[in-house]
Amino acid sequence: MKKLFLACLAMALAAGCSTTVPVKGSSSTGRMHFFGAVSAYSNKTGTLTVLRNDGVKCNGNFDLITMFDGKGHYKGKGLFVCDDELSGPIELIGMGKYGTGTGRLGNDEFTFIFGPNVKEI
Fold it and tell me: What is the pLDDT of residue 106?
């Protein structure tokens, strides 16, 4: 079943499709929480759009630097920028529509998860 899903995902990417799933995360200090969506596109790029608990919107763009490594994993790196001018790097690793990531906004490090089953708290 897992191989069938990966084959379908690979065909969708080759056909020019995109995938969008929920994302949520928080800072290591616990001061910042966010919820939104992460999207991946067939051209090996993606976006991360979230709303923080303080009402500030943040957007990230990333490039998938490793698509399929023989196990179905991928990695991405990019930049996260918020409306309050905080910005910083993001990195993610995933398999199919599920994954995790890390980043930094100002002095706050944060982690996030994404996938179809992610729900806002």
Answer: 86
